[in-house]
Specification:
Elements: E1 62-70, E2 73-81, E3 86-90, H1 97-105, E4 112-117, E5 120-124, E6 129-130, E7 138-141, H2 153-163, H3 168-181, H4 197-209, E8 215-219, H5 227-243, E9 247-252, H6 255-261, E10 264-269, E11 272-277, H7 279-284, H8 289-294, E12 298-312, E13 315-331, E14 336-339, E15 348-361, E16 364-371, E17 378-383, H9 384-390, E18 397-403, E19 408-411
The structure holds adenosine-5'-triphosphate.
Length: about 400
């Protein structure tokens, strides 16, 4: 996601200027559009469904159908998130993650669809409902935190409650308590420039939580940290998010952040949801090339008949599962063996391939291969001694093989 917008300093929920374009609208209107479920976001919003009459308290959590037109790009994403759940929006550059987050925060208006939180409609263009960002119960943590540089950590955190009408000492007491819980009591009077990246992130989290938001939005929460700090901060952020009882949505293009921090992933490509599920489900059953690469699997799509899946006109992979109809077959690069001569074993799928790239990772090599003739492109992981023994280099023609038992087939 591409950085915070300085014009939106401190985000919503803190009461700071959000550059809201529209005036506030009464938030008492409850939801129409009852049809929004956790589906894959395709298709038009049916819009004028029966009013569910839900008020705050009923219909808890986030229910959104975000349709946003930006030039040639259209975002069309449905999200349904329960209180206490942490959802990660994951996707490649330009997929629409930032646009989704800005739409949830109210910083980018919806073209169509709706946004409902705990039964309250925050936005629904069809009904001309649009609550101003600063009046939404939403806290945002921007990628670069956007702390006020001239205020201490304490005053940064106290700012939101002050804007929501708390007295000075009440706001500061609340801020001190939050900073204490974040392990930052000793830094309460430090200015942001004297904080480490991890400390600044905790201040930003405390600031976002200070107004008791019902929706917490995190934009690439670990992107500003160096690799050394990321590990600790990731684990710590996970603890804080696990303790948060309302809805949390984070956007990231880092699969590790998404898998560690979130209960559920929604993968967005080209403005639509291509897959969603728990990290384990997604890692086991990727449904697009982007996701397969993320989770480090070779993935092919074909037509299954029994143990065989036809993945090319002349190419059949034998797997361990029996299936019929459209299917995916996946296997990890570590399951691939490379040979100079055709392997003998019939328990193996084998085909000819040519090495197109080699990268070393510690004692391992990740080798990219293009299929020769009708063979499949693939990635293989080999140890350095194996690479030396086979005398592998870019352009080398080899046989690639994978045991049937190490492939995994599932319905497409
Ligand atoms: N202000 C704008 N006007 C027109 N198109 C825009 C605008 N902002 C973004 N877009 C387009 O919207 C699409 C989605 O962008 P978005 O920033 O939401 O993607 P992203 O998933 O957050 O990507 P990244 O990880 O690179 O930040 C892109 O095709 C982008 O070019």
């Amino acid at each position: 996601m591409s950085g915070g917008d300085p014009g939106t300093e401190a985000g919503t929920g803190t009461g700071a200027g959000t550059g809201a374009r529209d005036g506030g609208v009464s938030g008492t209107e409850a939801g129409a559009d009852a049809g929004a479920g956790p589906d894959t976001g395709a298709g038009p919003d049916t819009g004028a469904g029966p009013d569910t009459g839900a008020g705050p308290g009923a219909d808890l959590g986030l229910d959104a159908h975000l349709v946003v037109d930006r030039g040639d790009f259209r975002l069309d994403v449905r999200l349904s998130v329960a209180p206490g759940e942490v959802l990660a929006l994951l996707g490649p550059n330009g997929a629409g993650k930032t646009t989704s987050l800005r739409a949830l925060a109210g910083l980018t208006g919806l073209t169509q669809g709706h946004l409902r939180l705990d039964g309250q409609v925050l936005e629904q263009p069809e009904r001309r409902v649009r609550i101003a960002p600063e009046r939404r119960p939403v806290g945002v943590i921007f990628q670069d935190y956007l702390l006020f540089p001239h205020l201490s950590a304490l005053d940064n955190v106290a700012f939101g409650p002050r804007c929501h009408g708390a007295g000075r000492s009440e706001a500061r007491a609340l801020a001190a308590d939050l900073l204490d819980r974040m392990g930052l009591a000793a830094h309460a009077h430090a200015k942001p420039r004297r904080l480490s990246g991890g400390q600044a992130q905790r201040v930003a989290l405390a600031r976002a939580l200070a107004t008791a938001p019902r929706l917490l939005l995190l934009d690439e929460p670990l992107a500003a940290l160096d690799a050394g700090a990321r590990l600790d901060v990731r684990a710590e952020l996970r603890r804080h998010l696990a303790a948060f009882e309302a809805v949390a949505v984070l956007v990231t293009h880092d699969p590790l952040d998404a898998m560690v921090l979130a209960d559920r992933l929604v993968v967005v490509e080209n403005g639509t949801v291509v897959q969603q599920g728990t990290p384990v489900e997604i890692a086991r059953h990727p449904r697009t090339d982007y996701i397969a690469r993320l989770v480090g699997l070779n993935l092919y799509r074909g037509e299954a008949e029994g143990h065989q899946v036809r993945v090319g006109p002349e190419f059949v992979l034998t797997g361990s599962e029996e299936l019929a109809g459209p299917a995916f077959v996946a296997f990890p690069p570590s399951a691939v063996t490379l040979h100079r001569d055709r392997p003998e074993s019939s328990a193996r799928n084998a085909w000819r391939a040519r090495i197109t790239g080699m990268e070393s990772h510690g004692a391992q090599f990740r080798i990219a291969l293009a299929g020769a003739e009708d063979g499949l492109p693939l990635a293989a992981d080999l140890t350095a001694p194996a690479v030396a023994e086979l005398d592998l280099r870019e352009g080398t023609e080899v046989w690639a093989s994978v045991k049937a038992a190490q492939t995994h087939a599932y319905p497409a």
